[in-house]
Amino acid sequence: MWRADGCTAARYLGPALSSGAVRKGRGNLANLLRRRLLHPVFQPIASLEDGSIYAHEALIRGPEGTALHTPDRLLHAAELEDLNFQFESQCVLVAMEQWGDLREAGRLFLNISADALMGAIRHCELDGLISLASQLGISPRMLVLEITEYERVADMDRLALAVQEVRAAGVALALDDFGDGRSSLRLWSQIKPEFVKIDKYFTKAISQHGDKLKTIQALQQIAAIFGTALIAEGIETEDELRVLRDLGIPYGQGYLLGRPAHLPRTQIEPKARVTLRDRMVSVFPEMRRAASAGSISRLAVIKAPHITRATTNDELAQLFFEHPKLHSVAVVDDARPVAIINRSAFMNEYSKLYYREIWGHKPCLKHANLEPRVIERNHSVDDLVGILTSDDQRYLVDGFIVTHNGRYEGMGTGEQLVRSVTETRIEAARHANPLTFLPGNIPISQHIERLLASGVEFVACYADLNHFKPFNDQYGYWRGDEMIRLLAGLCQAHCDPRRDFVGHVGGDDFILLYQSDNWQAQCEAIIAEFAHQARALFDDAAREAGGIQAEDRHGVSRFFPLTTLSIGAVIVNHNEFTNAEEVASVAARAKHDAKTSEQGLQIRANQGMLLAPV
Questions:
Q1: How many domains would you assign to the chain?
Q2: What's the rounded mean pLDDT across residues 310-334?
Q3: Do 445 and 477 fall within a single domain?
Q4: What are the distances in angstroms from CA 537 to CA 162, 506, 561?
Q5: Which residue, 215, 249, 373, 531, shows the most beta carbons closer than 10 Å to its own?
Q6: Could you give the percent of the chain with pLDDT greater than 70?
């Protein structure tokens, strides 16, 4: 493949091109290989920290204007003509020859399939590649073999041994298109490559997909363990680039940074340079919409003894005597719960006259509820809420049986179930509000911390409804929820999702974190549109009167105007604040001042005060 028996790159092509397959081949690709008509183009790999060019990947092309110009057509032809090995040989060699002629000093990524790499090692041809690199003035430490199609390899251990020889020669390794192969995670662990390229599926529209973002965050954790640098492929938009930069992905590749070209680039595209220099902090997609509440993580379980179908009434009574706090007992058949017996109901029967003499030695199953409430440890919160609100409320008396993977684990009470669901809902609400699905306290704080760390100037707005409690008391919580959802929708409508963050603290309190320059106009629009649209939630009499008669917090009946909105705004300079709590506290004070002064919008700038009535 790369035998070192001459002094020019052309000499190295001899062994690969003189094989019978190419010499006798009559296909179009065989003709291209004989005539050495393949040529490389180079696509930049850039640092996402400062925008500098870190390396180039050599990509192969056929003659322009022909059917075999594009790489997919070339690969398909190699497969059809059974010239995979010869085709890859020429691809690597012409790329190195061109790179050597250009006298480029940066790193060069060369694609090679796992099969071709193992074949080269097997035939002891790695030395030829290293010798060729030396004669072309290319340091082996500037070469990166980018392994492709590794998911087809049956013997991963053999491939791992092959790459040890590559690394011993000073050549670095990369895995291509990670996330698109069935065995790639194992291979990453075995060979610990210097670079892993994240498949473009995870990059495409990452600013809109929280699941993709979380996947890349998981890959970052793996990369940290193995000491691997990640390269995000397929970057095509400014939003994608900004999110990947803010995630801390070190390198990127894609059309936005630079398309493949005959000559290596000295700079990435101007649009990409502007984006990377822009201090605007991206809004991570999983923060804009909530995930589901998930599963119960702290379901209380009583490690209670259980009985079988054959347990007698006397034996069950003795069990209850020995465990006076046991409210119910599970009937278990081969680790699988089949029924539940309530203590009070059973003991009422057992204490009756002559019951022990007649029924004491007979099975207790006649007292069992054969349709017990069984809850799996990883039951979703939504399912458990369905249990709490269902017509069947026997769990309040009998309790419920807890299983793990379908096997009996213990007992629980109705009170414990309610407490577990409540605690889980409260914890989930800290991440995402269940009413509006907007980010809760934790992601709000995280985004403020990111803004402070970036040094960018932003505006923190705290929005709160005026006279909401009387409205909620008068019309009920269903209409109260409708009003809160109205406010949530207006906040989102008047925020740029790429620049601005909307969070729901709870109740009728919202946080808006603006990086947009027109934030004040947007806040004023929210206030005005809310005042107009909220009128529809009142009845005709209230709209005509301009408010409602209701009790205040002290139980005194008085007149309340129609519900309106107040917003307190703080212009945040990162030098004046050290953490998210300080920002939220000052914004809350500005909101309080806006409510008490009956001004729609109140702005704090540089610790001073400016009133902006609406």
A1: 3
A2: 92
A3: yes
A4: 71, 20, 13
A5: 249
A6: 84
